[in-house]
Design a protein that fits this description.
This protein folds into two domains: 1-31; 32-148, 3-Layer(aba) Sandwich (Hypothetical Protein Ychn, Chain: A). Strands 4-3-2-1-5 form a five-stranded parallel sheet, with helices on both faces. The protein has five helices and five strands, in the order H-E-H-E-H-E-H-E-H-E. 45% of the residues lie in helices and 17% in strands. It is α/β, with parallel strands linked by helices.
C-alpha cells in the first residue's frame, strides 16, 4: 500500500513539474498576458517617444495580445495632422502607418480640432474623431483599459 501511495505522489509531483514547466515556457514568450491599454498624447514634443513606447509595448506582448488606443488632444493632436514635423524635422506618417498596420487605433479630440482650427482634410485618415480627449481616456479606463501617459 505504501508503495502505491508513493507512486501516486511521484506521479502528482511529475504532473506539477510539467505544468510549471509549461507555464514557465509560456511566461517567457509573453509574461504580460493580454492587455487593453489607452495611451494619452497631449504634447507634440513627446509624441515621437510616446509612439515608440506603443511600438515597444506591441513588441513585448505581441500584436494579438494587446489592444491599444491612443488618444490625441491638445498640442499632441498635431501628430495626426498631415505635414506636422517633430523637432528633428521628421513627420509622423510612417510611424503612424506602421502602428495602424499592427492594429493600434488613433482617436483625436473634436474639441481640439475646433479649438486649434485643425483642417479636417489634413487629419490622418486612420484617426477616429471623438467628442473629448480627456473624457475618452476616463471612459476607456472605466471600461478596463490600463492608462499610460508617456
Amino acid at each position: 500500500m505504501k508503495a502505491i501511495f508513493n507512486s501516486g505522489l511521484t506521479l502528482v509531483a511529475a504532473a506539477v513539474m510539467l505544468v510549471s514547466f509549461t507555464a514557465s515556457a509560456a511566461e517567457k514568450k509573453n509574461r504580460y498576458g493580454k492587455q487593453k491599454v489607452v495611451y494619452q498624447i497631449n504634447e507634440l514634443d513627446k509624441a515621437k517617444g510616446a509612439l515608440r513606447n506603443v511600438k515597444n509595448h506591441l513588441n513585448a506582448l505581441g500584436d494579438k495580445n494587446v489592444e491599444i488606443k491612443v488618444v490625441f488632444h491638445s498640442k499632441g493632436a498635431f501628430a495626426l495632422v498631415e505635414g506636422t514635423k517633430d523637432s528633428k524635422g521628421n513627420t509622423f506618417a510612417d510611424q503612424l502607418a506602421g502602428l495602424s498596420n499592427r492594429g493600434v487605433k488613433f482617436l483625436i479630440c473634436a474639441n481640439t480640432i475646433r479649438g486649434k482650427k485643425i483642417p479636417k482634410d489634413k487629419i490622418n485618415l486612420k484617426a477616429e474623431v471623438i467628442p473629448s480627449g480627456v473624457a475618452e481616456v476616463a471612459y476607456l479606463q472605466a471600461k478596463g483599459y490600463l492608462y499610460v501617459k508617456p
